[in-house]
Each structure stands twice: as C-alpha cells, then as structure tokens.
Amino acid sequence: METFKNLKNIQKTKFELVDSISNEGFVVLNDDYELINEKKNKIKNTKSYFYSLKNGFSDYYAKNIFFTKNGTKFEIYEKEKLILNLESKLMGDYNISNILASCVVALKLGVKKENIYYAVKKLESVKHRLEIKKQSNGITIIDDAFNSNPVGAKMALNILKNIDGERKIIVTPGMIELQDKQDFFNQKFGEQISKSCDYVILVGKKQTTSIFKGLEKNAFKKEKIFIAKNLSQASKHLREFAKKGDVILYENDLPDTFEES
Predict the structure, then answer these.
(1) pTM here?
(2) Where does CATH 3.40.1190.10 sit in the chain?
(3) Nearest Cα to Cα of residue 197 among 207, 211, 185
C-alpha cells in the first residue's frame, strides 16, 4: 500500500499482467474479491475463468466444505456440475481457495482428475499454520501459533467449532502488535471464542485482559477459563485437564520465556 497508495492503483497494476496475456492463454481469477469481480466482463484479450468459495455463479466454486481431524473434505463444481471430490490435510478458507485455483489451472492444462486428487491429498501444511497434529492419546491439536491477525483467528475458531470432536479448547495469549486497535480486536476475539469453545486457557493475565472482557460480555462461565502466567504453566494445566477426543487450538504465539509478574 505504501508503494501503490490505494487499492485502485493495485488493481490497475495487477491487471496489467492480465492485459499482457495473449488470446492463446488464459487467466484464473478469484471471484471473492470485489476489485477482481468488477473486472469480470471487461477482459477481452484472453480467456478468463473465475473461481469462488462464496459465489455459486462463478465458473468454478467449492462447496460442502467439512473439517475433520484429518483435514478438509470439499467438492469442486464447474457451473452446477460436480467435477472433483477432494480431501486435503490443509485447513482454512485461504488454503481451500488456493487449492481451487490450482485445480482450475490443472484442469485447463489437461491434467487428469485422478492426478489432481492425489496431489491435493499429499499437500502438507505450513508448520504452525492451521497444522493438524493427531496425538497418540486421542487428542487432536490444531497448531495455528504463527497466526497473528483478526481474520485468521476468526477462521481458526470457525474450524475448531465445526471439526468433529469432544471438548473444544483454545490456548492463546491473544493478538499482539495491533497498536491502538489491539484491545478492540482482542475483545472481539474473546466474544468469538465464547461461541466456539468449551474451555479457554489464556496466557498472561494482563496480556489477555481484553479477551477476558469479551468472554465476560457473552456470559462465558468463569470456571471454564484458566489464566496461566506463561506457556509452561498453560501446558502443564493442559496435560492434567485434556482427555481423549478433545480438540485443542493453539492460536497466536508468544516466546516460551514470556512470563507476567
């Protein structure tokens, strides 16, 4: 944004790439973004295919997205026709959106559907980014420790809420480095947690004050909240408390040495 000054300049620059494609090629574009969608009927120099997670009128779209302890299951449609039924270890809307775009490109290049299915199933998640870790004791961990933004945190909570499992537990110090918006977003985070989790472990009483306010606002039971002074204490409590069937989300991160006085 510092370089381009505004979103319209970014749009103009990005679509210079589209304008450079010959009529023998094609472009694959995300229909879920307004600045892309508004260009939908204005691309004349080459073939264009739009994909979406939200718009069932796109050329290609994903639907029936289900989160499991093994990852995600979802379907890809071309117009109204089911063309791919996929499984992936990856989770999160942004991952499914990227997979959808890649599938469209592969299909247009003539890659066989069975090869696409195999490739998607073999994809590995980036460490600490909605990374699924199945434990030998029957506990499932969703490691999203490297996430630090409100959109990603909300997405992770949606996954936790909808994944199959017994109790849904979150371990978090909240979001940091959000400057004057930090308290606002962390309180909203607390409100979202109250609708998605059965038990909450907060790391750092001062650090998580705004999250606690959000939990209180939605009348989340205080006996379902444990406040640890550091990650070590949070982990110790979790070892004593968690049981088979639980799903635990580690959301956001602080150094192992973090400790409030």
Answers:
(1) 0.86
(2) 7-122
(3) 211
DSSP 3-state of 186: helix
Give exposure, 18-53, as e/b (b: 16+ Cβ within 10 Å): beeeeeeebbbbbbbeeebbebeeebeeeebbbbbb
Pick from 148, 229, 153: nearest CA to 196: 153
**Per-residue pLDDT tens for 148-182?**
799 999 999 999 999 999 999 999 999 988 889 99
Q: 258 pLDDT exceeds 70? A: no
Indicate the CATH number of 7-122 among 3.10.180.10, 3.90.1150.10, 3.40.1190.10, 3.30.420.280: 3.40.1190.10
Q: What is the pLDDT of residue 1?
A: 53
Q: Is 131-251 CATH 3.40.50.300?
A: no
Dihedral sign, Cα of residue 135, residue 137, residue 140, residue 144: negative
- Comparing CA positions, the residue from 249, 98, 244, 43 lying closest to residue 161 is 249
Task: Please determine, for residue 95, whether its predicted confidence score (pLDDT) is greater than 70.
Answer: yes
**What is the rounded radius of gyration, in angstroms, for the C-alpha atoms of the chain?**
21
**What are the pLDDT digits (tens) for 201-246?**
999 999 999 999 999 999 999 999 999 999 899 999 999 999 999 9
String of DSSP letters for 67-122: EETTEEEEEEEETTEEEEEEEES--SHHHHHHHHHHHHHHHHTT--HHHHHHHHHH
